[in-house]
Amino acid sequence: MIKAGIIGSTGYAGAEIARLLLKHRDVEIKWLVSRSFAGQNYEDIFRNLFELIEKECTDINIADMAEGVDVIFTATPQGFLQGSLTAGLLEKCRFVDMSADYRIKDVSVYEKWYGMEHHSPELLSEAVYGLTEVNREQIKKTRLLANPGCFTTCSILTAYPLMKEHMIEKDSLVINALSGVSGAGRGAKAANLFCEVNESAKAYGVTSHRHTPEIEEQLGYSYGEKLTVQFTPHLVPMNRGILATETAKLCKEHSYEEVRQVYDRYYKNERFIRVLKKDMCPETRFVEGSNYVDIGFKIDERTGNIILMGALDNLEKGAASQAVQNFNVMFGFDESEGIDDIPMVP
Amino acid sequence: MIKAGIIGSTGYAGAEIARLLLKHRDVEIKWLVSRSFAGQNYEDIFRNLFELIEKECTDINIADMAEGVDVIFTATPQGFLQGSLTAGLLEKCRFVDMSADYRIKDVSVYEKWYGMEHHSPELLSEAVYGLTEVNREQIKKTRLLANPGCFTTCSILTAYPLMKEHMIEKDSLVINALSGVSGAGRGAKAANLFCEVNESAKAYGVTSHRHTPEIEEQLGYSYGEKLTVQFTPHLVPMNRGILATETAKLCKEHSYEEVRQVYDRYYKNERFIRVLKKDMCPETRFVEGSNYVDIGFKIDERTGNIILMGALDNLEKGAASQAVQNFNVMFGFDESEGIDDIPMVP
Amino acid sequence: MIKAGIIGSTGYAGAEIARLLLKHRDVEIKWLVSRSFAGQNYEDIFRNLFELIEKECTDINIADMAEGVDVIFTATPQGFLQGSLTAGLLEKCRFVDMSADYRIKDVSVYEKWYGMEHHSPELLSEAVYGLTEVNREQIKKTRLLANPGCFTTCSILTAYPLMKEHMIEKDSLVINALSGVSGAGRGAKAANLFCEVNESAKAYGVTSHRHTPEIEEQLGYSYGEKLTVQFTPHLVPMNRGILATETAKLCKEHSYEEVRQVYDRYYKNERFIRVLKKDMCPETRFVEGSNYVDIGFKIDERTGNIILMGALDNLEKGAASQAVQNFNVMFGFDESEGIDDIPMVP
Amino acid sequence: MIKAGIIGSTGYAGAEIARLLLKHRDVEIKWLVSRSFAGQNYEDIFRNLFELIEKECTDINIADMAEGVDVIFTATPQGFLQGSLTAGLLEKCRFVDMSADYRIKDVSVYEKWYGMEHHSPELLSEAVYGLTEVNREQIKKTRLLANPGCFTTCSILTAYPLMKEHMIEKDSLVINALSGVSGAGRGAKAANLFCEVNESAKAYGVTSHRHTPEIEEQLGYSYGEKLTVQFTPHLVPMNRGILATETAKLCKEHSYEEVRQVYDRYYKNERFIRVLKKDMCPETRFVEGSNYVDIGFKIDERTGNIILMGALDNLEKGAASQAVQNFNVMFGFDESEGIDDIPMVP
């Protein structure tokens, strides 16, 4: 039985990790850390877990905590883990980090986009970027897992095979992505009140969203060269879901079948990536609550572009269930243990 | 391995039964019947199940079908099963019926409220009303299970202990219930279009909703006498959920603890009924996607009334998961097999 | 041209008053007070009013302000106005107060339900409760208008004629009301985040909601005796709207026509109260954005109860547009000036 | 007093025209045509208009109808008007058509994208494309107004000044647009049920949406050459609203101020086009219920792209209120008569 702790357990991603670990046959949750709710019953805050998790939230003491568990999940703000983690702590237990702290290999890029100093850059080389389907072999061996962002997971997995195969022009990718509101977190901000968000849509973080360099770095690895993408996120009134619509210039004419074969080559054996049938467009409701990514595409012969579409649940494959998937790989469990929920409709 | 068939598999309740049975370790789905979608791939209609159920919908032939399976779930319109079922069919396989056809013991009441003739009244005595927590022992032995309605399950379980113990005045119950839109089904009706329902609330079926006699009959059994309730359902803009708020006159003054003890006596050992802590009001989001019923109550000393509140998911405990719960009891499986999903937030 | 100021102009009700006054032919908005947003452009906060109101929010200085305007609208928290208002200020300008400070005539009831001392009880006798259709004559003459709450306006107007005519039993009224989320205000509370409220329904303030004594006091005036009601509010996921479903015991049997005649007698000439046709149930979407109250009712011969239903927009007839309606009456303008918006569907 | 008739008055756009004309000081609605609802009271269908429009829906007889009115608004399916209209009818009254029948000057393009024959191509030369701010002078003189589509109005007005000034590369425009559900109409289609649309997002009509040739034709006129755009529409769960996010390659480096000056030159005096302040992104809620288009933009120096964003209400500036705006221009009324509603928040 693996012992796990969660820091940042009262945010949406942290709470979802707790719910998933509860279902995991080989994990015992030892403690749930929350600064703001320390001393309160977890089940009183997340009443979906009423009678299921009967524990108090505890305040943070990362050194002590690392002693008693095998793995720590950190669903914490940017900067927390890179400011706390040491080589010594990594000797004691493994970390699955939901923040961006160890996602970007280039420290200067991190420091520029996140506007803060990185306090443990020496650990970056050990960190593995946890896009499971892409980096599975490295994930098996790491002690420090940098779990990808929600927009990034969706954007990258949708374009990855075509980028890797140089089928689309390197700098032509225009990514317009839609996100449900849970991506904005559980903090009490007026901008995320029901009445501020409901019945409306907007773009935000235009030209400046922090998932941009993460997408660019990873797709650059796939392509084999540095590249840029034009990434524009939008907020739409739903709880969960990411939909990425990616427009790219095809390097040359391709038939549906040719593109399809490439996707199948990469993803046919991936349980959690479903390439849809011809002419089907992914919808976020069909992946909600699950670890699935649904992908579709359409070639536009008029313009020479290909439109790629990917959908996932931002709190699952975009956060918590991918974290557990990576944890499963790191600890040698069946990759789908605890995260085999089937989306429900409606 | 139990073989199961589902008639009416492309409605919301039927599809939810399919999804739950897919997770059930002892069930194999043999066929999925849908008149409207016969010949189409089930995964093309319910793309949440893409790559998970690879079967075509079939047209209906109940006699042949009963030969090849152990149980048939009918998620069909009122009148279908009572017009098709025979003693002979019941010899071949067991039925779990989601419609009202065998819920009401008094044929004249059925015929009056549903405006149709009952064609198999001789089977009514064998039918068991599938409120699992109330009728568990009879359910074990039946071949014909009448699965309760969504409003009724919520309304009855919330009031049952107090009614049974004669703590509230017999005819004083005023039930105001809210329902999500999935309760209205998946038929193409203009009244259920997004833009007709979103951002609005209304009462409907006032004084005439068909769940009224079902609530009255069952609560009458609990009380030991016939009784009436004032039941007013409302439609609110959410996919799933029933919230029943029940106002009743207390027969005499009671403390919180006295009422609490009664609830605990009935429900403490029930896995799927959660009586909340003092002053907590149930919220539908905390039971969504699960078989739970959450119950709370509040005594008003000013008025001598008690306010009871119950919440469930209309497609789960109000339909599909309770059907599987009953199926589990009928066939001797662990009662929670296939229906142990934990609600997720948000 | 009447000069008006708004204190609390950056809450939902305050902003709605601003929007309505902007359309009013005889009003000029002199200043918009907001402590939290002082110094910011109003159009930057409420971008629906971009290019329409080009003013900065100012900090509060009620004495100076009263000098320069004819009327002050206060959309402020409970306690603000009763702690600031004096007979001297009332000499300078008239007040339309959206809070509960002067709604309840019995100071002890106010102090008990609101948990605060009342600092200007001497002004209570002058205050008029601004249910326009009920108290129009008194409103014409007052300098201090206590604008009713949203639940109360809906609950009272729906039951008023039958209560006044003693057609329903005095203490039998069970009011279950639904509210959109804007009723909870624009403050940054986690409980009102989109993801905490969306896709869920709950009762709240059960047995303790502060609109209870207001409803009881006013309906008691109508009936001619003190009475109690059982009032249970609910939160449902929509921006705007109040729906009140009121169950009452009829004193004796009545036909539809008899009850209808009573409603017509009271409301036929009221522009903003629409008694619907037989069997029509009000829906909040049909009054959204307008000053209308839609009312329907249904007699249940089985139980001897009558079900009354009323719908209004909590920010309009339940707050801002009724405030402007009262202002129009106070200053002798056409009662519908500035508030004649027609609800739009969807 | 202008006499007007509406054909297709029970769809969302038709009903919105009725509501707007009701507020118009110089218009009298003579008849409301609806095949499906002929003989029914209009106020029973659109109960927002209860007591405000007391007319029965009539069946269609376009020849007779044209005799008695000055203008006919057709909110009808594609193909209706081009199959009914004749030069003779145009002698009798003027037409404002909401369909695409006369929007596209090139008949072969119309026939290809709409899959139907055009029966009155001889009238195309007389038809004026009703983008008011672009074609105002021609609109003044026309008898046949082709009112633009919702996506097209938003997409074109957002890009128009930069396209006209050749500031962006001709074929580089990637338009990703989001639409509320009312754009799908009021027909009883299962795909538009609340539970099929709520809590989900999807792209649709990818590479094949019929607004594509309309955008291309009009932007081609602006640019002075034929061009192509990559247009991908999405459905998001809200009643109303279009948000267009347009990514284009700048022909050369431009500062914010340079681009801003161009927008100001074209739109500064346009009442209904609001170019937002620097760094502000339009949100659909801030234009809902109004004739406004809100526009913002952001230059990305990293990529050399400019991101343009436009928001409007698909039923207003994207349909009904623009139709009335065009009607006002055609008949010489103040352009804002009847359509000066201010968006309300929330």
Question: How would you describe this structure in keywords?
Answer:
homotetramer; 346 residues; alpha/beta; Rossmann fold; Dihydrodipicolinate Reductase, domain 2; seven-stranded parallel beta sheet; 31% helix
What does this structure look like?
Four copies of one chain form a homotetramer. Chain A is α/β, with parallel strands linked by helices and 346 residues long. Chain A has helices spanning 12-23, 42-45, 62-68, 80-84, 87-92, 107-114, 132-141, 150-164, 194-197, 211-223, 256-267, 320-331; strands at 2-7, 27-33, 57-58, 71-74, 94-97, 128-129, 144-146, 174-179, 202-203, 230-235, 242-249, 273-275, 293-300, 305-312. Chain A has twelve helices and 14 strands. The two termini of chain A are 35 Å apart. Chains in contact: A-B, A-C, A-D, B-C, B-D, C-D.
Uncertain residue segments of chain A: none
Number of helices of chain A: 12
**CATH class category label of the largest domain in chain A:** Alpha Beta
Distance between the termini of chain A: 35 Å
Q: What is the name of the CATH topology of the largest domain in chain A?
A: Dihydrodipicolinate Reductase, domain 2
In CATH, the homologous superfamily of the largest domain in chain A goes by the name Dihydrodipicolinate Reductase, domain 2
CATH-derived architecture of the largest domain in chain A: 2-Layer Sandwich
Q: Give average pLDDT of chain A, whole number.
A: 97
Oligomer: homotetramer
Instruction: Specify the helix fraction band of chain A.
Output: 25-40%
**String of helices and strands of chain A:** EHEHEHEHHEHEHEHEHEHEEHEEEH
- Number of beta-strand segments of chain A: 14
Largest contact between protein chains?
A-D, 45 and 45 residues
* Biggest sheet overview of chain A: 7 strands, parallel
Rg from alpha-carbon coordinates of chain A: 20 Å
